[in-house]
Amino acid sequence: IHNPLPEGCSLLELEHITQCVVKSHIETSQYSTEELKRMAWSTYSVEETRMYQSKSAEVMWQECAIHITNAIQYVVEFAKRISGFMDLCQNDQIILLKAGCMDVLLIRMCRAYNPINNTFLFNGRFAPAHFFKALGCDDLVAAVFDLAKSLSRIQMSEEEMALFTAAVLLSPDRPWLTDVQQIQKLQEKVYVALQRCLQKGGASEEKLTKMVSKLPVMRSICMLHIDKLEFFRLVHPETAYTFPPLYREVFGS
Amino acid sequence: KEKHKILHQLLQNSTSPVDL
Predict the structure, then answer these.
(1) Cβ under 8 Å to A: B residues 1-20
(2) How many CA atoms lie within 13 A of A77 on its CB side?
């Protein structure tokens, strides 16, 4: 039943990888599952929602850019704690983070999504899609909510999410990487660890297929975000210049 | 290197800038 072990990889090593990745995920999650559960029914009032909707696009973009930047810092910490990541050359580390951090954020995001009332955690409370109207990107917001809905249907455990986000981050097909083979080996080990974790949890074979099948949607959301940012930059260059430097670094051309 | 100054710094920092 078990998948063959990657060449030169022992069961002990897989166990070590799993423990390391899961620990890193838990240590670098902005909110614990208990905190999220506690907040799940704390929503915005109609007046507060209207107030957010009537903000200018510049103010709302700035606010969201700050939230995304904070979340990226946690993803960088997550990456640093994955065994083998810091052994890669710094050029490759940066390429993997720039290309993969939004994917990781999109997967992690479904922890902060309540599928029952279709709301997302934003600034300490849960907000529906129309809350983000001021951004002027209804299609991007709708795509993010749709993804969260479909990801939450998969019902990933924290262990599965930890390993899946690590595997996505270690994608060897990102352009300009120097040590593709090394990254490929690392990713293969993480995927086998994930398969074993799924089998242990009694999950069906389909669960991994379902998780992986969301990757193209994530990629299109990442591209849509970049498109929207580029348009915003054209219309409001001064505001875009005041976005957090890390946000500009990661999403700049 | 200049282009990814902050990522470089974050990767080199042994302590996290985020209060984890």
Answers:
(1) 3-8, 10-11, 16-18, 20
(2) 21
Classify residue A95 as exposed, middle or buried by CB count within 10 Å of its CB (0-12, 13-18, 19+): buried
SS3 A114: strand
Cβ atoms of A181 and A156 closer than 8 Å: no
Burial A156-175 (b: 16+ CB within 10 A, else e): beebbbbbbbbbbbbbbebe
Please report, for chain B, how many H helices and E strands are present, in that order. 1, 0
pLDDT at residue A1 tops 70: no
> Which residues of chain A lie closer than 8 angstroms to B7, CB-CB?
76, 94, 97-98, 246, 249-250
Tokens of A34: 């208990």
- The 10s digit of each residue's pLDDT in A136-162 is 999 999 999 999 999 999 999 999 999
User: Regarding beta strands A119-122 and A113-114, do their DSSP bridges make them parallel or antiparallel, or are they unpaired?
Assistant: antiparallel
**Which chain A residue's Cα is nearest to B10?**
A76
Structure tokens at A149: 């809905």
ipTM, two decimals: 0.88
Nearest-5° Cα angle at A52, A46 to A53: 85
**Residue A68 to residue A235: CA distance in whole angstroms:** 21
Beta strands in chain A (DSSP E): 113-114, 119-122, 125-127
A107 CA to centre of own chain = 4
